[in-house]
Design goal:
- By secondary structure, the chain is α+β, with helices and mostly antiparallel strands.
- It has a domain at 44-87.
- 44% of the residues lie in helices and 24% in strands.
- The chain has helices spanning 3-22, 44-60, 69-87, 139-142, 146-160, and strands at residues 36-39, 91-94, 98-103, 106-111, 115-120, 124-129, 135-138, 163-166.
- The strands form 2 sheets. Strands 1-2-3-4 form a 4-stranded antiparallel β-sheet, with helices on one face. It has a 4-stranded mixed β-sheet with strand order 7-6-5-8.
Length: 169
């Protein structure tokens, strides 16, 4: 299907679903070509920041002497930074022909042509690109819903003719 035709189908499906929703009926077409966003919870970096903060407090021993205001501002800054990293949830967005995620350097998008292969493992998903590093989405490190990601990435790989290595079985 051409892209213009897909846009027309999406628009008509959206209008039909709105009409059916107003009538109180169930939607006929559910999300044709809609991006699917898988969210994780990044707890490792905040945990490390809080441990470094606790170690910093232990070494400074503020209970023996008054360390001053700068010490407490530094402790508070570590706690705020840990909260920021905890609230900035990692994600993987899968569209029809792209994958999108956020790294430390900003948002990254991989088109289907730039993906060498996708490796599905029991606790992780690895996306290897033609150039650059590989993306690893782990249940252990970021609490991603790996089973749902595997299902969606299987269809993504089939639709875009990407090599898929399935180690889940």
């Amino acid at each position: 299907m051409s892209r213009t035709w897909e846009r027309k189908v999406r628009r008509n499906a959206r209008q039909l679903n709105k009409r059916l929703k107003k009538q109180g009926k169930k939607a006929l077409v559910a999300g044709i070509g809609q991006p699917v966003k898988f969210r994780g919870i990044g707890y490792m970096v905040p945990l490390i920041l809080l441990l470094v903060n606790a170690f910093f407090i232990y070494l400074s021993k503020p209970w023996e002497t008054d360390p001053g205001a700068l010490f407490w501002w530094t402790v508070a800054a570590y706690v705020v930074l840990a909260a920021v990293y905890l609230l900035r949830r990692p994600f993987l967005t899968v569209t029809r022909n792209t994958l999108e995620t956020r790294r430390f350097t900003g948002y990254k998008i991989l088109k289907a042509q730039e993906i060498r292969r996708i490796v599905l493992m029991p606790g992780a998903v690895v996306v290897e690109s033609v150039k650059g590093t590989r993306w690893v989405f782990s249940r252990f490190l970021n609490l991603y819903p790996v089973e749902k990601m595997c299902e969606r990435l299987r269809t993504f790989a089939e639709d875009n003719r990407i090599d898929l290595e399935d180690r889940t079985r």
